[in-house]
Amino acid sequence: MSSPSENSLKIGIIGFGPFAQFLVKTMIKQGHFIRATSRSDYTDLCNQLGISFFRDMNEFFESDNDVILMCTSILSLSQVIKSLPLNCLKQPALFVDVLSVKEYPRDLMLQVLPHDSDVLCTHPMFGPESGRDGWNDLSFMFDKVRIRNETICSRFLQIFASEGCKMMEMTCEEHDRLSSRSQFLTHTIGRVLAEMEIEPTPIDTKGFQKLIEVSATISMLMKDYMQKESTSRDSFDLFSGLFIHNRFAKQQLRNLELAFETIKEQLIKRMNEELDPS
Length: 278
Hints:
Structural class: alpha/beta
Number of domains: 2
Number of helices: 10
CATH superfamily of the largest domain: NAD(P)-binding Rossmann-like Domain
Strand content: 5-15%
Protein name: Prephenate/arogenate dehydrogenase domain-containing protein
Strand order of the largest sheet: 3-2-1-4-5-6-7-8
Keywords: Oxidoreductase
Largest sheet: 8 strands, mixed
Distance between the termini: 79 Å
Order of helices and strands: EHEHEHEHEHEEHEHHHH
Number of strands: 8
CATH architecture of the largest domain: 3-Layer(aba) Sandwich
Radius of gyration: 22 Å
Shape: elongated
C-alpha cells in the first residue's frame, strides 16, 4: 500500500458490491482513504480491508468526503440518489458514477444534487474478470459534466490513468450512442445464442466452432458486467437497464429486427421461387 500523500483523496462509496470492492483494492494500494456504505452490511469485509463502513447514511455524508462514488445498479440509481441526505454534506463534493449508461445518471445527478457539487460521469470499460490482471490498456471513459474543482477531479482520474488505462474523454451522449452497438448489441446477441442453447456437435464446421467461441466470450463479458451491477439479482436486471436507460438501444433493437426480417424474407422468396418456378 502506498503512503498517503497530498494527492490522496477521501473517497466515499455508495454501494459496496463486487465492482466497488474490485475498485477499492487499487484505491487502497494507491494510498486513498475509503469510506463505504451499502444496503447490505459489509462491516467485516471493510474491517479486513482497513476501511470504514457506515450503516447510517447521515453519518456517511457527514464524514467529509472529497469524492462520492456511486456504485449502485442502473435500475436502483434513481431511488438511491433521491434518498440521499444531501443536507448532511459539510462541503461541496465531487459526485462520480460508474454506470454502463451515461446520459441517465448525468441527468439524474444534475437534477437532484446541490448546484455547488461537481459531477463526473465515468464508465470503466472493464470489470473484475477482465481487469483481474491489471488495468493497463483497458479503456476508461469520462465526461466532466460540471467541474469547478479541477484539482479533485484530476486526482480522481489519475487513479485510473496511473494504472495504465486508456483515458477516453467524450460526452455522455456519444458514449451511449457508441455503446448501444458495442455493449447492448453484444448482450442482445449473447442472449439470443443462450436462448438457442447452441452446443458443439460431432460434425461441427470451423464456422460453427467460431460461433461457439463467440457465445462463450459473450457469456464471460456478461458475467463481468454483472459484477458491476452490485444490487442486481440476475443478469436480466443489467440487460434491461441497458435497454431502458439508453435511448439509442431502442433503435439498435429495431435495426436487429429489421435485419432478421430482411434475411427471412429473402429466404422465403428464394424458397418459393425454387418450389414454384412457374
